[in-house]
Amino acid sequence: MKNNSEEILKDYYSKKANDYDKLQLHENDEHHNALKLLLGLIINEDFRTVLDVGTGTGRALLYLKNFLPDINYRGIEFIPELREISISKGLSSEKIDLGDARELPYPNNSFELVTAFGVLHHVANPLLVIDEMLRVSSRAIYISDHNIYGWGSTITKTAKQLLRTAFGQKGSGLILTGFRGYYITDYDGVFYPFSLCDYLPKLQQHSNIEFLFSTKGHTTNLYTQASHLAVLATKKT
């Protein structure tokens, strides 16, 4: 069932679609760094089929295609206007589907690798998306996203970590958002107080975490210091 935050998000990105790249894409930002590392992993692990969940304007797939023109790719995007822009940039309309990451329209084990860049912090229940990514992947999933506990000044990071310890993931998220449960911003629409760290136990139930790293600067403690993380998890056999 759609909720108010989802409608706000759809309206925001429908209106901002033409400005999306200018607002969200920057050379050597966290997702670009994650893509550079992913490229090496794809070559090393010989992944042949890739599904990108939340394709947006096509950044990830266009990057991979530039270096691996023969890669068998597919994408799925929730916002029609963003999908159209990705196609206008050169992605095949037959390979970019319009759909919901919480209910991926593909059979089990359809793709060797399933990716998501900056998608999960826009979803009220990221576990639904992670479950679907694991279901349709035959070998591995790769996620690049926020770690809210390592984001901000030393004072704000410490405060968020203390709230997480005292009130848990859900409780701290409500407190941080003034009990609304999500943020509404001019630069990223609706997003939730998301941390990839909170979902590592879920990944470990069904997969082996091969790599987990900061995508925005060096840190000695990923949970307390890294604002953005990426993870490669290979499915257990």
Automatic annotation (TrEMBL):
The lineage of its organism: Bacteria, Bacillati, Cyanobacteriota, Cyanophyceae, Nostocales. It comes from Anabaena catenula FACHB-362. InterPro entries: Methyltransf_11, SAM-dependent_MTases_sf. It holds the Pfam family Methyltransf_11. It comes from the Bacteria. This is Class I SAM-dependent methyltransferase. GO terms for molecular function: methyltransferase activity. Residues 51-136 form the Methyltransferase type domain. SUPFAM superfamilies: S-adenosyl-L-methionine-dependent methyltransferases. Keywords: Methyltransferase, Transferase. GO terms for biological process: methylation.
